[in-house]
Amino acid sequence: MGPTACGKTRIAVELAQQYPVEIISVDSALVYRGLDIGSGKPDLATQALAPHRLIDIRDPASPYSAAEFRQDAIAAMQEIVTNGRIPLLVGGTMLYFKALRDGLASLPAASPDIRRQIEALAAAEGWAAVHARLVAVDPVAGARIHPTDPQRLQRALEVYEMTGIPLSEHHARQDPGQARDLPCELMFMGMVPKDRARLHMLIEARFRTMLEQGLVDEVKVLWERSDLHSGLPAIRSVGYRQVWDYLDGTDSYTGMVDKAIAATRQLAKRQLTWMRSWTPMQELACDLQVNNGDEDGNIVKNALKLLSLNAIY
Q1: CA atoms in the 13 A half-sphere facing the CB of 105
Q2: Which residues sit opposite 255 in a β-bridge?
Q3: Where are the domains of the chain?
Q4: What does CATH list as the number for 112-172?
C-alpha cells in the first residue's frame, strides 16, 4: 500500500516478473471501465506483462462497494493460493485494505432519495455543511472523515438518516473475527516517501501528463453519457470530478487543473495519515525518483527481505 504516485504499480510489476505472485488491484477507481488515464490504470502492455485482477470489472454507472471488493478479493486470493502462488494486493484505497482485514459492519444498501437530499444540501451550502450535519449526529465519524471527502461523508450521513444509528456505532458492532475467512495470512508493506515535497512535485507532473495523454477527452466520453452524473462514485474519483466540473462549465481550465492537483495532494495526505495508524505494517522507504532502476531494485530487495523475515515467502 502507499500514497498515490509513489510507484506501487512499478514495484509490483517488477516483483511479478521475479517471483510467483499474482497482482490483485486495491483501487476504487481501477474497477471501472473507461476510467483509464485519470486513474493511472496500468496500460495494456503492462497488464500483459503482469496481469491485474479486479481491474475493469464494473461499468461506472454501477457503484462498486467495499463489501463487494472484499468478496471479490477473497475469491481471487483463494484461486491464487489454490494454484500454489502468492496474492500480491497492490493499491491505495485504504478502506478496501481495512475491509479485507477487518470485515465490514452490516449496513443498508444505498438510498437514491437520501443521497439526492444530501447532494442537494452540498450543492446549496457546500460539503462543509454536510460535514457539520454529520458531526452533529455522529461526532466519532465526523472526526474521522475529512470535510473534503464527499463520498465517505455522504455514506456516513446516509446510514444515519436511514437507520437512526450512527455509522460509528454500526462499526462498533461488527464481528472482530473477520480474518478467519481469509485464505492466507496477510502482511502489510507500506511505501513511505522520504520527501513529501518530492511527492507533491510528482503528483503535479503526473496530472499534467494525464492531460497531455487526453484526460479531458476521456472524461468527455463519460460526461456525454446520459446515464452518468457527478454523484456517482466513479465520477467523484480525484481528477475526474474536477474535469467533469470543467465540462459542466462550472470551472475554468486553469481552475480545474489547480483543484485536481490540490485534491490529489489531499488524497495522498489522507493515505499517509491512514498508514501511520495502520498496524502492523512493514515500512518500505522510497525516494520517488522517476524511472530510477536502482531505487526500484532496492525497494524490491527490501520487500523480499521483509517477506523472508516474516516467513511468508
Answers
A1: 14
A2: none
A3: 8-103+185-221+262-309, 112-172
A4: 1.10.20.140
What residue ranges in 110-198 does DSSP mark as E strands? 189-193
* Each residue's pLDDT tens digit, 281-308: 999 877 766 555 566 677 888 887 777 6
Residue pair 18/300 in contact by the 8 Å Cβ criterion: yes
Taking the mean position of all CA atoms in its chain, how far away is CA 134?
Answer: 22
Rounded to an integer, what is the distance from CA 296 to the centroid of its chain? 22
**Residue 40: closest CA among 51, 29, 52:** 29
Residue 296, CB-side half-sphere exposure with 13 Å CA sphere: 15
User: Under a CB-based contact definition with an 8 Å cutoff, are residues 141 and 172 in contact?
Assistant: no
* β-sheet bridge partners, residue 86: 21
Q: Which of 157, 179, 192, 257 is nearest to 3 (CA)?
A: 192
List pLDDT tens digits, range 39-97: 999 999 999 999 999 999 999 999 898 889 999 999 999 999 999 999 999 999 999 99
Say how far apart CA 251 and CA 261 lie, in whole Å.
Answer: 14
CA distance 200 to 13: 23
CB 17, CB 49: distance < 8 Å: yes
pLDDT band at 313 (very low <50, low <70, confident <90, very high): very low
Strand order in the sheet with 21-26: 52-53, 21-26, 86-91
CATH, range 8-103+185-221+262-309? 3.40.50.300
Contact assessment for residue 133 and residue 121, using Cβ atoms and an 8 Å cutoff? yes
At which residue does the C-alpha cell 449526529 appear?
Answer: 137
Report d(CA 134, CA 129) in Å as an integer. 9
State the cell numbers at 202: 510528482
pTM above 0.85, yes or no: no
* Beta-sheet pairing, 52-53 with 86-91: unpaired
Cβ atoms of 264 and 238 closer than 8 Å: yes
Contacts of 217 (CB under 8 A, 6+ apart): none
Peptide bond into 280 cis (omega under 30): yes
